[in-house]
Amino acid sequence: MGDESGAIDRVLRTESHVRLPRVAAVVRIVAGVLFVVFALPKFTDHAQWVSNFGSYGLPEWSLLVYATGAAEALGGLALVAGVLVRPAAALLTLVMLGAVLFGGILGGNPGSLTLAPALLIAAAFVLWTTWPRARARHAATSR
């Protein structure tokens, strides 16, 4: 049983997380999966999402929807893989700020006032746990 928990620790622990490494890793992985799942409709139901963006007061640009879907999908994959975590979390935080502001507050979409804020908090939490100043402080105290 000790070997199993050691393997789980290795999967969940990543060098990028300074604060709350296990919690941060779980949040990172779950949020990453959710970002990928919620990016897919921007490609599979593209016309509807172009219309949705227009109803939020955003330009009805096909490219904007593709770019948002790509940011969510690639950012989510980066979070799951544990690579480029800080830039991915920063990008996803900005995308979710836009979703909450334009889709939720200005657009009145209930999904943008429920799931989007949760993903915003998750992305911001991952960003916070990987912040460089925290890494330097952690390195200084662990010597």
Quick gist of this model?
The chain has helices at residues 2-12, 21-39, 41-44, 46-55, 62-81, 85-106, 115-129, 132-141. The protein has 143 residues and is mostly helical. It has one domain (21-141).
Note the main sheet.
none
**Percent in helix:** over 70%
User: How far apart, in Å, are the first and last alpha carbons?
Assistant: 31 Å
Radius of gyration based on Cα positions: 17 Å
pLDDT < 50 stretches? none
What is the H/E string?
A: HHHHHHHH
Structural class: mainly alpha
| Averaged pLDDT | 83
Cα shape = elongated
Total beta strand runs: 0
Percent strand: under 5%
The total of helices stands at 8
**What is the domain tally?**
1
Keywords:
143 residues; membrane
Could you please describe the fold and organization of this structure?
The chain has helices at residues 2-12, 21-39, 41-44, 46-55, 62-81, 85-106, 115-129, 132-141. It is mostly helical and 143 residues long. The chain has one domain. The chain starts with a helix and ends with a helix. The model has no long low-confidence stretch (mean pLDDT 83).
Set down the secondary structure blueprint:
Blueprint: H1 2-12, H2 21-39, H3 41-44, H4 46-55, H5 62-81, H6 85-106, H7 115-129, H8 132-141
Helix pairs in contact: 2-5, 2-7, 4-5, 5-6, 6-7
